[in-house]
Specification:
Blueprint: H1 14-22, H2 35-48, E1 52-56, H3 59-70, E2 75-80, H4 84-87, H5 92-97, E3 100-104, H6 113-116, E4 130-137, H7 148-160, E5 164-169, H8 172-179, E6 194-197, E7 208-212, H9 215-218, H10 221-227, H11 236-246, H12 250-269, E8 276-277, E9 285-289, H13 292-301, E10 305-308, E11 313-317, H14 324-339
Parallel strand pairs: 2-3, 2-4, 4-5, 5-6
Antiparallel strand pairs: 1-7, 6-7, 8-9, 9-11, 10-11
Helix pairs in contact: 1-11, 2-11, 8-12, 12-14, 13-14
């Protein structure tokens, strides 16, 4: 049974799996000094320019490494209240950095300078944690995508206030595909200092990359990677996947497809009486409220999550392997349940 619950549910893209097998042919130096990790680092630099590349097992690990690079324990991270680092990482960023999170309620998952500005009035006051990082998700947990203008404005504001910008890029491929620009234009060119580059939500078996753009943050990054228990001895098997992901625009092909399937899903279900699409469909997520009696019967056939228990808002995610037939069958099943 296919699922609309999470893009983490999908399997490994065949080209990624082939890359893993191809990397399994001989002995290589461990801990990232192998030829494939070096080659993949060069590929990242061709795309992004001057970047330090580290790898992590998962998104939480990548975010923790990134934040440790930016913070002292008396400093804090500003993020949306829906941010993954706040809502879905079991306190790992706080536990690992010793720093606190300052959360902001947002209507669309996006931070703005206007929302952050009131938090900066007590900078320098010894009784308060000192905001040092603005952490954003691209795309956001609410499925929205920051425009380049929004990103540049936010980064300029942060830098003017001596803050770093961390991007949780678990779904950066989907965001960049939606924007129709290059990876570099959507990240370092906007002023992002450090980011995670998602893999497992876009066809990888395991692994995320940490991309460090800001020279100040590069010096100790590899020590934080080791201290955070994210240094893989056989790193070539993570690097091999990213090598395949970044070759021949595989990342873009998969992201465009999952975005297109989400747009198709939203279009089809919006035709059904009683179904309300609740948020913009910018990337590969669809949020909706449907008649209550249809939720559990629909979930019996296609797994998905309830996003908001109070409003019964649902979240449907599309993946690189979601097919048009599955989307149409999902919509047909929902229509039959609603109109029964």
């Amino acid at each position: 049974m296919k699922s609309f619950a999470s893009d983490n549910y999908s399997g490994i893209h065949p080209e990624i799996l082939e890359a893993i097998v191809s990397a399994n042919t001989q002995h290589e130096i461990s801990y990232g000094d192998d030829s494939l990790t070096i080659k993949t680092g060069e590929l990242f630099r061709q795309i992004f320019g001057d970047v330090k590349v580290l790898y992590a097992f998962n998104g939480t690990g990548a975010n923790v490494i990134s934040l440790k690079c930016c913070l002292l324990p008396f400093q804090s991270v500003v993020c949306a209240d829906t941010a993954h680092i706040n809502a879905d990482e079991c306190g790992a960023p706080v536990q690992s950095t010793g720093s606190s999170l300052i959360t902001i309620a947002t209507p669309d998952g996006k931070l703005t300078p206007e929302l952050i500005k009131p938090l900066l009035t007590r900078i320098g006051n010894v009784h308060n944690t000192q905001p040092k990082v603005v952490s954003i998700s691209q795309s956001t947990e609410l499925g929205t995508v920051y425009t380049l203008t929004e990103l540049k404005n936010l980064c300029n504001f942060a830098h003017a206030n001596q803050m770093f910008v961390h991007m949780d890029g678990a779904r950066i491929s989907n965001a960049v595909a939606a924007l129709g620009v290059s990876l570099k234009e959507a990240t370092i060119d906007c002023g992002v200092d450090i980011m995670s580059f998602g893999g497992t939500k876009n066809g990888l078996m395991i692994g995320e990359a940490v991309l460090v753009f800001n020279d100040t943050l590069k010096e100790n990054a590899h020590f934080y990677q080791k201290q955070t228990a994210q240094l893989f001895s056989k790193n070539r098997f993570i690097a091999a996947q990213f090598n395949a992901l970044l070759t021949n625009d595989l990342w873009l092909r998969m992201a465009k497809h999952s975005n297109a399937m989400a747009a198709l899903l939203a279009n089809e279900v919006s035709k059904i009486p009683g179904v309300n699409i609740t948020r913009p469909v910018d990337a590969n997520a669809v949020f909706a409220i449907i008649p209550a009696q249809a939720i559990e019967p629909l979930r019996q056939k296609y797994r998905f999550y309830t996003w908001d228990e109070q409003t019964t808002e649902l979240r449907w995610m599309c993946s690189y392997d979601t097919t048009k037939d599955e989307v149409l069958d999902f919509a047909a099943t929902l229509k039959a349940l609603v109109t029964a």
